[in-house]
Fold this protein.
Amino acid sequence: METPLAIVINHLDFTYPDGKQALRAVQCQVAQGESIGLVGPNGAGKTTLFLCLAGVLNAASGSLRVAGLDPRIPAERKQLPARVGIIFQNSDDQLFSTTVGDDVAFGPLNLGLPTNEVRGRVAEALTHVGLAGFDARVPFHLSGGEKRRAAIAGVLAMRPEILLLDEPSMFLDPRGRRELIHLLNGLAVTKVIASHDLKLILDTCRRVIVLDRGSIAADGSAENILRDTALMEAHGLESPFR
């Protein structure tokens, strides 16, 4: 029996109002439970692809389904926040409440869940990311690694089927980075991780997609893709030392 698909993208195009085409005929599938590394140079279209998957941007042509939903249909797009979580490059863009607990509770409260269930989800999510007891802490007093985990907790409290992580190791020190890798490997959900940190990709993903100038240049096993020095250099990347 085949594993169900979490993401299906067919010939997806996206052009910004200034005429810049960010995505060109992107086509791929992601199975439920897969952990995919999305790599490429700056301006390759990685963040644009995430925003299309999350329903923030509406693709010009092509089709996509995310967690069984079509982000371009308004009624289905409204369901995406409960099914798809996106972690931005800068955790400060996601942490805006006066306490960590309030931040993590924001999403579940907007789903209209009962107070007791929201409290349970907050406690569960903070425990999962190693921040149990941080409910009353001020987000902006946290370390970089703690902020990243708090942002992830806010998404996990929604209990999404899919996580989209944009440069998750940015601003982290070595300890925070190790904690992040351990956390990501312990999450039993579909994950797409966009990063220039190719060692992190190698530690968390079995499959890698190379995106450059809005098009998929390669798609295969992480080991084969990342050890291909010529391929990496052709797309502005470097093979991890390992």
User: Anything to note?
Assistant: The beta strands are 5-15, 21-31, 35-39, 61-66, 84-87, 162-166, 190-194, 207-212, 215-221.
